Each structure stands twice: as C-alpha cells, then as structure tokens.
Protein 1
Amino acid sequence: MSRRIALAALLVLLFIFLSGLTSFGLTGPDEPRYASIGRAMATSGDWVTPRLWGQGWFEKPPLLYWMMAAGFRLGLGEEAAPRLPVALASLAFLGFYFLYVRREFNAFVGATAAGLLATSALWMGYSHAAVTDIPLSITFAAACLLLLPVVEGRTAPVSVSAAAALLALSVLAKGLVPVVLLLPFAWFARRTWRGWLRPLPVVVFCAIALPWYAICQVLNPQFFGVFFIQHQLGRFTSPDLQHVQPLWFYVPVMVLALFPGTLLGSFAFWPRLYQDRRRKFLGVTILFGFLFLSVARNKLPGYILPLLPLVCVLAACGVDAARTLRPRRLTAMLSASALLLPLFVAAAGVLPRALNGGLREAFPLDPITVGRLWIAAPICLIAAACPLFLSSGKALVLWFALAASGWIYVEYAALPWVDAASARSLWRDLPEPKRSFCVGAVSRNWRYGLNYYSVQPLPDCGAETAPAILPGWSASDRPAVAVEGH
C-alpha cells in the first residue's frame, strides 16, 4: 500500500511541478532578465561573464545562468529553457530530501517533511520561477542535512566532502549568504573540528567555488566592487536596492510560506524535539538565519526559502511525536488545516492581479471567485471531519491529497489569467512587424519582459508619443502600456 501511495505522490508531483511551466509568460523583473542572460551565454559561448543585452551584469553568480543556458542549448523554448531546469532541480531535491530524512529519522518523518515542503506555497511558487532561490535553497539545505551525522558526533568524511561540494554550489548560486547561514555548524561541531575541517573538504569547496570568481575578476576588473560591495554588502546595509522592509517582515512571510501546512508547521516549536542534537542544530540554524535575514535592510520573500526545508524536518519530527504523545492535538491541527483549503480558491482569484499591481490591487475578490468559495466551503467542512474517523497516517495522506488538488486547481484557474496579463501575451498581440514598435513609460517588469521576448531591446518612444492601451486590454485589471508604432 505504501509503495502505491509513494508512486501516486510522485506522479502527482511530476504533474504539478512540470505541467504549468509554459502556460504563462515570464513575469516580474527577474525572470526575463535572468533568462536573457542565460540565453546570451548559450548563444555567445561565453560561460564566464554574465551579460544583459551586451553589457556585463554582475548582480548574481552564474549557477542559474548555466542551468538556463543548458536549457537553451537543448532547444527547450522561451519558457521551458529557463524554468524546466529549476523545476527538475526542485523535484530531484525532494527525492533526496525524502530518502535522507527517512534515513536520519524514520519513514514517517521523511514522508511528512517531503509532503509539507512539496505542497508549501513558497516552495511551489519558486519551483515554477526562473530565479536563483531554488538553486540556492536545494544546495544549502542538502549541505545542512549531510552534516547531521557530524553534528551528532558520527564520523562521516564522505558526507562532509559532499556537503562541501554542495556549499560551493550554493556560493555559485548566491554568493556568501549560504556560508553565513551555515555558521551555527561550526559551533555545534567545534569539538570534532579535526574530523570535518580536513584538507579534502576544503579542497573540494575551493575547487568548485573559487575558479569562476577568480576568472570573472580577471576578465572584468569591476566585478569585485559591483558584486561584493554593491550587491552582497549593499543588500544588508543599503536602502538603494529598494527592497527595504520592517524588521518583522519574515514573520508573516513564514506563515504564508508554509501554507497550507502552516498549522502543522507549528509542531516545529515543540520543546521535546530539541533533546536531540541534530534537531537542535536545525533549530538554531533556522533561528540564526531568520534573525540574520531580518536584520538585513533589504528583504524579499524568497530570501527565507533556504530555511524552509529545515523547518519542515522539525515540523515532521513534531508531527511524528504527536502521533503517540498528543494524538488529539494532531487530529485538531489536521482538521483545522483542512479548513484553510478554500484559500486556494481565493489565491487563484488574487494571483493574476497581485502579480501585476501588487496585493492591494487584488481585492476585492471578483464575483466568480466568491461563488467558487461558497462551493468549496462545504467540501472542506467534510474534509475537516475526516481526521476524527481516520488514523493519523491516513488523515495525513488525505490532507496531502487535498493540498495537491488545491495546487492543481490554482494552476488550472489562475495561470491562464497570469499569462493574459504578461509581456508574452502583449508581445504576441502586437501586429507585424513587431520590431517597428517602441516602448514608453512602463515599469521594469514590462520593460524586461518585452525585451526578453523581442530578443533585442525595443527602442524608447519619443517624448511626443502618448501611452496607448492595446486592443483586448482592459484598463480595469491590466496596466496601461505605452507601446506605439514608429
């Protein structure tokens, strides 16, 4: 029975993670910008210097660009080339995550942790996006997990070398941030430092992480100042990058990140968990990373994603303990979690407008979404009653099935509307010759998106050009785009 459930879960995850990748155009400022750099690498054959439309772009290291460039070399298409490598990497990590957590703890913890992570909103969303957060998160989290035997005092030279390789890849994904986030390991393994701080792991880390940085600096003398000073240090201290958020920003982000498993995630705070040294290491790493990212002036939701797999491990350990020590509490949490599932319907209605105009522009809900909420409510009430009559294991399987169904619904209901308000849709709507158009005063989201689909950046419109809304575009739910023929 368990093998059939595992196979069914695998097929469902493959469908959810892979089916919607090309159903909507690249969105936001980052996806089209990073994809343009990856495409340029594939076209030029220069795999060292990231270039955005011919100019050096040193905001991020190259791991994501290399993944995208490989996709373009394989001819995967405008959306699949940048997104499919990220989705496949996420799925591969989930497989490793389940198997390794099962080995370190038990099968129930492995399955619960993998289910919580795979269905969490932040992981699901970023696994569909061509940005750096998933490559960083999977390499950092895998390195943390591989170091658990060392934290517990077991000799594991192979695990240490593998963790060093993964940490090096995470440095190629996002710079020095993963090294800082892993600092608690040095404290927990301080008594056995001769066992893990050996020449081989150091050589492995340096051989993977350092060559690109050295070569890029030699070829581009401005690289060090732009990358390390302006972007690495600047994101922590400077307001110039325009992502300044309050100190408490990541508290609601973490609550939403775990949706629909937010209530189950509360089991990560069970004090009994921290009698185990491995779980104590994970808890301190989460707390340290949370505080470090909160103190930084610039904050984005994706910055906290590397901590999410560690939170899900602790939550799964808490759920496992609750099965025997607090079964009624677990049943109550599962029932209450089922009551959150109508939020999938609300999310499908909010998502398209939120991506374009921000969350404030997404409300009030449209009448169709409100009607669907009334339909979903009685279904979720029935689902909330089921844990009262099922064992905890079967109730969890039912809950994960409902969560997966919710994400399938979001893909079906929301992504076509996201595409309708994307730069891809706008570009396809332009009459031929498309290259005869210019772009007026638009946000950088639209600028980068249009430039990605036009391959060569479109020229700016002159001052005398008036903004125009193209046919088929409603000013009530889509931004006015200044695009004119010239």
Protein 2
Amino acid sequence: MRFTTLNDWLGWQETLHPRAIDLGLERVRTVLRRLQPKSPPFMVITVGGTNGKGSCVAFLEAILGAAGYRVGVYTSPHLLRYNERIRINGVAADDQALCEVFARIDAARNDLSLTYFEFGTLAALEIFYKVGVEIAVLEVGLGGRLDAVNAVDADAALVTSIDLDHTDWLGADRDSIGYEKAGIFRPDRPAICADSDPPPRLIEYAHRIGARCLLVGCDYRFTRTGITWRWQSSKLQLDELPAPVLTGEHQLGNAAAVLMTLSSLQPRLPISVDAIRAGLTRAELLGRFQIVPGPVEWILDVAHNPRAATVLADNLRARPCTGQTLAIVGLLADKDAHGVIEVLTDTIDAWYAVTLEGMRGRTGIELVTLLRDEVSVPAIAVANTQEACQIAQAAARPGDRVVVLGSFHTVAPVLAIQPWSSDFSLPSSRET
C-alpha cells in the first residue's frame, strides 16, 4: 500500500493529475473495467443539476432506507470529513476501508493518471460492489455528460435544476448547460427534470436518445394543502404527505422530483407510502438552510450561485427575526459574487466577507469591493471564517441572527468550531 493514512492518500491524489478539473470518462471507465469487468449488480440512480442535488440525494437515501433497501450514496463535496462522501445505509466509510480501496485503485490504474474526484468516484463504486448494495445513488460533481459518475449507466436519472454555474466548463447559457446535464440520461430509461423551465436542448437530447422524459408540471405535479401536500402523476396520487423536514418551500419541488424518480422505477423498486412518509421526515443535510436556534440564531447555507441565493433570500423573508441579520460570506473566484449579493441585498444588515485560500480562492477585500458597490449597510473584510464568527458573535444581540453563506469552504469551518456553543469563546485581548 502506497500510504497508510487517509490524509496522505488524499494529499497525494490532489497532486497526481496535472489538472484539478479534467472532464472525461475514458480514464474512469478504463480503471473501472479493470476493477469490475461486469456491469453493476445494483440499481443506479444518478442525480445532476445546478442546485438541489444534495437535497434530492438526502430524500432518496432516507426513503430507500426506510423501505428497507441497502443503499450506497456518493456525494461531493464534503463539509467536515472526506468520509461523508461515501455512505452505506447512512454510515460514512471509515478510514481503513477508504485506504484499502484507494490501494486497489492505485494498483489497477497502473500508470494512468486520475483526478481527485475520479479516485473518489471509483472508490465509491468499488465499495458498493464489495458490500453488495441494492441501490446506488450517485451525485454528479460537475455537469453530467463528462462527469466521472456518468461512467456507469443510470437506471433512472434526475436533473434538479439548470442555472448559470461552472460556465468555463459547461457553457455560457442555460441551453448549453442543460445539454451537459442531460448527458446522464439513458435510452429507454426514466429521465426526470425538476426544472419548471427546462432548456430546449435538454428535452431535445432526451427525445433524441429515446429516454423516457418526465417533466414537472406535465408528467407529475405537486400542491401544498395546508400543512401537508399532494403529489400526483398519471398513474398515482399521494395525499396528505408530511412536509419535508428540510427547510424551505423549494424542498417540495425537490421531494416531488424524488417521488417521480422512485415512481418511474416501479414495479422493480417497490416502496410503500409509509416509507415515503418516513423518508420525507428523516432526511438530513448539513449546510442547506440549516438552523441552529438560540438567543442568536445561526443559519448555515452553501448558497454559492444566484439561484441558490434567491432561495436563501426567500427563506430568510419567510422566517423574519426581531433583530438584525448579519452575514458571513465567502465565495470562490469562479462564482458570480455580484449575482449572489444582488439578490440578498435587502435581507442583510451587515456583511463580513472572508478570504478563501487556494487556486480558486477570492479575498475578503475583493468581496467587500463588490459589496460596497451594491449595498448601503456595513461591509468589512475579514481574514478567515473563524475571525468572522468571533466578530459576528460579539456584535450580535439577542433576537439577531447570523447567516453563513457561500462556498462549502465557508460553511464547513463554522460547523467545525460551532460558534453558538458554550465551548466557543472570543480570544482574550492578548490573543488579538
């Protein structure tokens, strides 16, 4: 074995391939054939889209688990630990299992270079083969057509939404991006799209390859009915469903798309209404309008593009507070920071812009420059997320709330240090 610790394996993987992002399927398919010459013995549900992927994966994992299936889940990125990316029945893979599978992949690749994400994708698939899952839920990392998870054929593929993001790789308009997302569809298999305005090229591609295209508002519908909601398709109607435990009105759309995905796999994948109800109320997802109550409420949301920020703004308006709303924000350089700030302007009373390190990083000073062009409220640059938490905690009064938003690299440190807990304290004057 090349390394004995997970951190060593991951550090090496980050430097192995000449480019961090290098879309394409040939490398993954070559190594996967060497590891597992036969097609997966388990069903595969692939989830792509701009926003909502993580929520849909969480609903799928919870409902399938409640139905009694052995479920493997692969997601990215992680918030606290790499192990979160690969789960069996909700339990993250341990360090030893990951080190062992990385060693097998390393041996199988021979001298073929792999990206960090490709290593992770192969590791997930190899673990799913080994433990004998019945269903694998795979979250697309970037795009769809050339993303590593597309190396395996999906029994059903769900595209949640299409918006402008990763335009350097996917194209400059929704139509081009929709085409890339549609690449996870397969002939004669369910192809679900939850976007209420699907780009023409997505629909055209689905029809051209003979996929069974299923669209919201056409092939399935959902309606809120007081504190419950109704879901219906041409074959089935479910009444008085419990509201999704994940917060936000948009989660009804995500949950509805998941129900269409599961319904499209019947009768191969029997699921009771009781399992659906249980899954809707058990799904968990860190960092998606995650609320930590207290005298000062903390809200964590990895909204890092304008559409996600719009949803965040709507959720904040639907949950007014008696005091001020302070925002800690950090965004990578390739994200539309102007668009994110613009839609949140009237919901934030003060901004703390943090610096994100790395090749794709953006400084807090750069963000503050954008903020001062857009907002009339205070905006200051802060060295890092921990310092921003200290400043926000000192400034906040009972009834205020602190919203942490933007990159996973902004939200993850907050989950780690938990500034709302009694263990978190401000530095002494000597430390400052």
Protein 3
Amino acid sequence: METVIKPVAITRDNFAKYGDLICSNDVQPIDINAGYAKRFDNLANVNTSLNDGKTIISIFSALKRSFPMKIDMMEKHPLGSQAFMPMKETTFLCFVAPSGDLPDINKIQSFIIPPKMGINYKPGIWHFPLISTEDTSFLVVDRKGNGENLIIHKFNKEKIILEYKKNPPQLSSGFNFKD
C-alpha cells in the first residue's frame, strides 16, 4: 500500500506539537544599536541540556531534492531540539511525525516553510532529514554531547511518497523592519 503525503503551508499553530516556527511575524521587536537594528527575542525553545549536552551552531550544506520523493526512513533526537534556518531566502520542507517509539504513519505531516522562516524540532520528534528545494546552506542549532541522540527508523515494507509542486501558496514572510 502506498501512502502519499502532500505538504501544507506551515503556521505557528499547525506546527506547535512538533516544535517552533522561527519567524518574526507577530513578535514585538526591541530597538537596539541606536535604532539601526531590531531584535526579535525568544523565537524558539532551544533544548539541549539533557545528559550535560551543549548547544552548538553548525552549517549544513544541503542539496536540492527531487519530487515526488520516496521517504524510506525517519529519525529523531531524544536528547535535544534541532533548529534549521536557511542562510538565503528559499523554501524548504519538513516531514514529521509525533514522538513515540516508532513513527506513526497515520499521523505523518509535511509542511512548507517559506522564505525568511525556519523551524525548531522539539526533542523526540520524528522527522526526515533536511528537505531543501535548492542547493543551499542552513544554519543549524542543535545538541552535542554524551548519550544516544540519533535514532533512525527505516521503512522496509511501507511505501511513503512526498509530493510537492513548486510555487504553492506561501505565507507572508517575517524579519521585516516595519514599526
């Protein structure tokens, strides 16, 4: 049996059970640097301290994915959150399932993350690795330290396909400097 998943536009509400949508929409900024910059605080809950983990910042260089795309595995990081922010304006996708011993195929969802936005997975959320719609780099904030923080589940019998067509409806993007 084949399961086809089509991504939907992401919102803070529809992504909340998986993590945080990182954007400045509806966030009151603080003026800093003598008015030459605005600071948007507390956009994601970085959670990396279990088992004395430390928070690290990395850059992932991602290759463009082709669609439709076969989903043959999912992974989770039980000891820490994991945030992805594109380093240029681009659309990317995420493919998630709620935390649990195994990913629940009946609860899988996929989201379209528009330009100027990122995501932060909560610890233990099942997800497919980074799904970029073009070759680009991402700033990644996650955990380094002791303990098993990568669990992989391979879909051996299930046939799961992610369908995506370019130019779907987009959300308005954040990080503007309007008052």
